[in-house]
Amino acid sequence: MVDGTNVVRELTVDLGERSYPIYIGEGLLQETSAYLEQHGVSKKSSLMIISDDNTAPLYLDTLVSSLTNAGYTVASAVVPAGEASKSLSMFENLITKALEAGLDRKSTIIALGGGVVGDLAGYVAAAYMRGIRFVQIPTTILAHDSSVGGKVAVNHPHAKNIIGAFHQPAFVLFDLKTLQSLPLRQVQCGLAEVIKHGLIWDESFVDWCDENMDKLLALDPEALGYALYKGCSVKAAVVSVDEREGGLRAILNLGHTIGHALEAVAGYGELTHGEAIAIGMIGSALVGVKLGAPQSVYEVTKRVFGKSGLPTRLPAHFDTDAIMSAMMHDKKFTEGSIVYVVPTAIGRVEVRSDVAASLVRETVEQLKQEADWQ
Amino acid sequence: MVDGTNVVRELTVDLGERSYPIYIGEGLLQETSAYLEQHGVSKKSSLMIISDDNTAPLYLDTLVSSLTNAGYTVASAVVPAGEASKSLSMFENLITKALEAGLDRKSTIIALGGGVVGDLAGYVAAAYMRGIRFVQIPTTILAHDSSVGGKVAVNHPHAKNIIGAFHQPAFVLFDLKTLQSLPLRQVQCGLAEVIKHGLIWDESFVDWCDENMDKLLALDPEALGYALYKGCSVKAAVVSVDEREGGLRAILNLGHTIGHALEAVAGYGELTHGEAIAIGMIGSALVGVKLGAPQSVYEVTKRVFGKSGLPTRLPAHFDTDAIMSAMMHDKKFTEGSIVYVVPTAIGRVEVRSDVAASLVRETVEQLKQEADWQ
Ligand SMILES: NC(=O)c1ccc[n+]([C@@H]2O[C@H](COP(=O)([O-])OP(=O)(O)OC[C@H]3O[C@@H](n4cnc5c(N)ncnc54)[C@H](O)[C@@H]3O)[C@@H](O)[C@H]2O)c1
Ligand SMILES: NC(=O)c1ccc[n+]([C@@H]2O[C@H](COP(=O)([O-])OP(=O)(O)OC[C@H]3O[C@@H](n4cnc5c(N)ncnc54)[C@H](O)[C@@H]3O)[C@@H](O)[C@H]2O)c1
Ligand SMILES: [Zn+2]
Ligand SMILES: [Zn+2]
């Protein structure tokens, strides 16, 4: 689809009757109403936009104008930025707002923001009247991940993402212009998941990332559009086969077994999710090599994360016992067996349940010895 | 299926890959573990029973014994009886309990109680880790209705059932023995929905209710088993065609447009749901006759509710304006048009959106003038 002089990339997340498109292009935000109309969103029922207080000041007005100019009735709710907003009490506040705004069964909730807003707004949409329409306008690179697959959730004080649903959006609109305001650390964090999608599925895309990392870090729209398109495509391919996490979807956890444990033991704000899984993916590559993958799996993995500026080494002060015990509590343990995603080549992984804890422990120790990438 | 000397009635709620059976018979509670085994519920993951403080003292021990004797690990949570437990804060407590009990993705939540426990426990099961297995053991007659169709929810202070999901159980187990302890008012309340299922779908079943009302009120197991079987069958037939409330499912709202409005304006505890919809169904019959249905629709409707001891007249102190305005706020209004279910014959209804508010107002007034049934 070509829109003026800008290319709009489009891909479909193929989930039978729940299939939906993702549009990626520059300046799409101001055209949101046209996309809603194209998707048959009626003007008789109110819409509600949910955003956070970093994103709203930058982009909410543009979105609201697009909608009201087209004749939609719009309510907005702005939550504090940050993971703490993915709570049941924020969820309740938003349900109250939805009731006050008169949302009915034909209403649509629009998420404008990163993964936090997407997960939170998506769960509100999943629960309100047992499920109303949902549209995602992700404004972070990381949200390319959360916008595919329909996983929505809030956190419980004792466990992340434990209260949620599978609720697929009607469509996803990625406006590359909104990504220009992302702080570098958020850019890198999102790139970690982009690279992950290459590592599990597509060697040539890993090579492309390796060669184009400078452009990605500079938020070059053409490079970014392509990377988001590829990242979403891989995730879409995986979830199309396994919508409800029966099997294949486990490969998306590459680097996350160690990564989640690092997040659990790290001090507040010490590691972003992307940083934690970058270290986790280096760890997985080490495990892979120990189990027979070629040494180049480790080398390429380390190089691409190194170029992105993500950490490739675990800071020495992290306690290995604490990391191992956090791993044991992770929800990926089903009936006592651990699911571990091991690379066998660049672009190929296998899910194994026989990886010894001792091997993982050894790897965690080794991650502290890693030389910095330069 | 025959079990010892007792007949176990079985029917299937046909929802494709989400299809599930309902078992109805005497003494099934103590055999719950056998049903779980038959449905492949693993003993490696913990179960959690959710019940209320009326039902738990009567039946929880029997259920727990059945499960632990068979080798299941079981946690229990007991909530205060009553609609107030269908709240987001009770939901949060139960999620915490589930986490503490170590429930994982392969765990099962069992609802032991009436519709309140079923809706609440079902929503916990729908949300926990984005959905785990759910089994219903309904202990009220009314819960024959709530156990078919997968609608689960909690209430918001401003709206009933507004926070929820569609989450189908793995199976439903109706032990007729547990119904023997039901107070008469609860029996009548449940029969209102049983009769409703006849009125919308099956004239001969309405005749059967008319003839067997004494047995039903006396909780005769054979009559009760048949009535629950028929009631569930009608509801199952409707939801099989329309799982997510796109169309046909609206006929299940017979009597509920007026009924919900009466509940909204009634003083606390003045009307049960069954009493409110019984009056509502008399009202719908009156509307039906005004719109051309034979007078007998009204007569039969009134007789069968009269025999059951449910009210057939609206107490005079109810304010018609308040009722009409409550009706306007009901969530069945979609894009401004009202959905009203009108009988055209006994066992047949149509969903109309052209019923004038003035006709409904006139009917509400008329309901206050009704002669008592004797
Ligand atoms: N549902 C899924 O499948 C899935 C997958 C991955 C991650 N997630 C969830 O996503 C969340 C993380 O997502 P995230 O990294 O996008 O976090 P986020 O939403 O918190 O965004 C990161 C930060 O960037 C700010 N921000 C967002 N857009 C911006 C913009 N365009 N310009 C400037 N600042 C902007 C935000 O306000 C926030 O401070 C986590 O809660 C995680 O659980 C969900
Ligand atoms: N999900 C659905 O499709 C659906 C359909 C209809 C109703 N509902 C919901 O069901 C609820 C009403 O169901 P209900 O009438 O069963 O209410 P309930 O669960 O409150 O039970 C009624 C009363 O009977 C008590 N009780 C339950 N079993 C008993 C037994 N065997 N012996 C003695 N006492 C017993 C309960 O403790 C309670 O006090 C409402 O919240 C309604 O919204 C849901
Ligand atoms: Zn991740
Ligand atoms: Zn009802």
Automatic annotation (TrEMBL), chains A, B:
One of its GO terms (cellular component) is cytoplasm. PANTHER family: 3-DEHYDROQUINATE SYNTHASE, 3-DEHYDROQUINATE SYNTHASE, CHLOROPLASTIC. It is found in: Cytoplasm. The keyword Cytoplasm applies. Catalyzes the conversion of 3-deoxy-D-arabino-heptulosonate 7-phosphate (DAHP) to dehydroquinate (DHQ). The gene is aroB. It is an enzyme of class 4 (lyase). Residues 190-332 form the 3-dehydroquinate synthase C-terminal domain. It comes from Paenibacillus cellulosilyticus. This is 3-dehydroquinate synthase.
